[in-house]
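thought: fold this chain, then report.
action: predict
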Amino acid sequence: MNPSHTPNAHQGTDLKELLATRSGGLSSRRKLWLAGALIAVLAVAGLLFLRAGEQEAEPLYRTEPATVGTLVVKVSATGNLQPTNQVEVGSELSGIVTEVLVEENDRVKKGQVLARLDLSKLQDAVARSRASLAAAEAQVLQAQATVAEARATLARFTEVAQLSGGKVPSKTEMDSAEANLKRAEANEASARASITQARANLQSDETNLGKASIRSPIDGVVLTREVEPGQTVAASFQAPVLFTLAEDLSKMELQVDVDEADVGQVKVGQQATFSVDAWPGRRYSAVITRVGYGSQVKDGVVSYLTVLEVANDDLSLRPGMTGTAEITTLTREDALLVPNAALRFTPPAPGTGQGRQGRSVVGSLMPRPPRQPPKVQAAVNDGTPRVWVLRDGQPVPIEVRTGATNGKVTELLGGSLQAGTQVITEALGAQP
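observation:
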């Protein structure tokens, strides 16, 4: 081996090793630098995402304008139609029904015979009463004759006494003659009283005979018939109902039950409309004629009977139909109205509110102080009615004085709210 070439060989080997070592070191550093850069980018993106998530959403509101219009307040009630005058016709007498002369829906006149009872016993009673009257009249004639005889005897005794100077007849005979005259006059009075009694009995029997013919007390229509020929009528305790008559079906009344919460608004003379199931889509007019003071309790609900007068010229309405009425209790022209939702609205709790518009990426990375929430005036729960309006994007309360309501809108009687002002009725959510 040549000693002179040994150092160069070693030097070549060392140079290769050195170059390899340097190349490996540079590759590792580059990898580390790329990894660090990637981590930095991810950190910036995460921070930007967190900054965006921290942004508070701005709330959105639904508004409606305050308007000037007509406020109509109505009260609903349900009841049944009835004739203005409904009469139940019965019998005061007991007996067998021999004839029924009318049917349901027949029109009848006052005094018209509807049915008849058996007249045999009643006619016999009338005949007996007439005979008793005749006998009483004969007794009066006989008593009158007796009176005339007693008066003549007393007159003769008086004349004889005057002619005889009081010697005849004797005092006893004179007293007896005077007593006989008074007795005869008393018998005549008794006989006349018997005539009066007999005449009264005859009149009573004739009345019963007339009542055996059941007559209509009114002009009207037969609604129901509860009797048939051959049926026995027993009127020992109360008069049985044989017919139900309605006087004039061209005028009817709707009897409704008004709830105790609404009765204070209902008054005589108010207008109403109602409908019945038999004629869907048709509205009938009515007027209140009576509001009852006596209460009715049904299933724990207190109500008051209210009567409405109804015109039924075409006879489309019938007794017993169920009517649903809407009574107009208040009509206010040119009233300032707001939705009821505006009076119920309360703004949500204050949030954290400003967006990121106008901030740079660098600015987003920089720390910043906490943002102040928007200035929303809190609602004071003192019972004072108020509505809320938007000013500079924020809800602001306005106190008002409320009046009547129909359930949808309420009349404002005072306050600074003007017609056309948009009032908040609902919070819709948030806007990023």
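thought: worth noting. The chain has four domains: 58-70+336-431, 75-83+251-331, 93-118+212-247, 119-201.
final: tokens above.
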